[in-house]
Amino acid sequence: MDSVSVPAGSYRPGYELVAEQILQLIAELGLRPGDRMPTENELATQLGSSRTVVREAVKILSAIGRVRAQKGRGLYVSDDDGMLGSGRWGGFFHPTDLDHVYMLFEFRRVQETAASRLAATRATPAELRTIETAAETCRQGHLTGQSALFDRGDDDFHLGIATASHNSFLVASVREARRLQYQSAAIGLHGTVGGHAQEATEEHAAIYQAIRDGDPEAAARATAVHLDNTLEDYRREIQRRVFG
Amino acid sequence: MDSVSVPAGSYRPGYELVAEQILQLIAELGLRPGDRMPTENELATQLGSSRTVVREAVKILSAIGRVRAQKGRGLYVSDDDGMLGSGRWGGFFHPTDLDHVYMLFEFRRVQETAASRLAATRATPAELRTIETAAETCRQGHLTGQSALFDRGDDDFHLGIATASHNSFLVASVREARRLQYQSAAIGLHGTVGGHAQEATEEHAAIYQAIRDGDPEAAARATAVHLDNTLEDYRREIQRRVFG
DNA sequence: CCTCCGGAATGTGTCGTACTCATTTGAGCC
DNA sequence: GGCTCAAATGAGTACGACACATTCCGGAGG
Question: Confidence band (pLDDT; 50, 70, 90) for A87?
């Protein structure tokens, strides 16, 4: 009995249980990212709890990027991405806040120029092929006007480079940054909105060639240019929405 | 292409603002992991909000591992011990695996050189003071042989620079990288183990001066040198443990 | 003096209610 | 058809009350 210890933490708050039950419910209902979920009141009655507890559970789920709440509309299932789990910055990023967008792209610039630099000296032939086909997918998406295809290729391209850097931490941060950018996509801001898709495919090609040629600095420069142009595209789009 | 009218999301719920304010408050009060924080009611009155909103903000902060709530006791700044497995990269990082340590330092090098570069052009006088006093704390810890004091100063120094970069994403990734390094500390590997403490204080001074002088490249170079030396220190210590 | 016990004090967890404010819907009008 | 505006829906905020866990403290008993 001296001192203590264990028994202290043997308690589990209800909002945690409810959070798990909500995830379970999403799975049972077969809800997919973007789908609408039951309202707070419905969840409260169905799970035999109060709305207060449900709300706190939802806050947890939204903080880790599984649920999205919109005032006046409802609750929505968000990207699952159970991989490295869960948005550490999810709650604070607002895609229409220009300061936040600048900040995010500044962050991406740091992560991805570093990743490209490393990839140029470390990429294996298989990884080079992955990057190349991703760029090709992107190009096809642009040519055929399928923005979904473009987005998928873009995703594979940037994550492929990160993977080729052979640094898991960089992969995780690149992935996280992209996940945050998807929040923008959720409100209608796509990377392909402007006329940037054409330039983007060219820039992708330039980045790929620099990496394939094993030129770290050229790869970093090309990546920086690409991200700067993408940011400029975003900036125009947001301003158009706010003032246009 | 129409629909999606404008600023569909140009609204910011209060609990997010409060969550940020709480983080800011923690920083201002100089609270360290494990320290007790103000109660929910105190936070509510101090931040001019209601307990409801404060509670939801706390749920977010606890979900991302910054705050821990214990029933009947109070709120605590998280020491992350309950999250070793749930942290984003916690699962696969092994502090004694040299490859992983290299990888982590490579990551830190990317994050912190970028942070120093930005801090050199953005740091406010107050932030410069924070960095300077942290470096001084570090030096005192070295001179008096108090390694705990050194570690605390080191922590404040690097996080202070990240904060001065004015990019929350960089702050988060620097913090995350340090958290992982603490896992090394947990098994007995401290940054101060070798004779590196002496050099470290000098390197800190060099970094600080470069930032204060507003020289981004010098700041980045000094930071890179510092991290490389720290890594070397780690490398020696690990080898000593494995083979010694 | 020390230990043990029990109640008071503190503080998070849960519940209910009543609002506000953003968004959507739909009925009625032009 | 397209427009306006009011009702309905649903998350966000606030307040008050109580349940439950933990800690603090003083008094009874040895």
Answer: very low
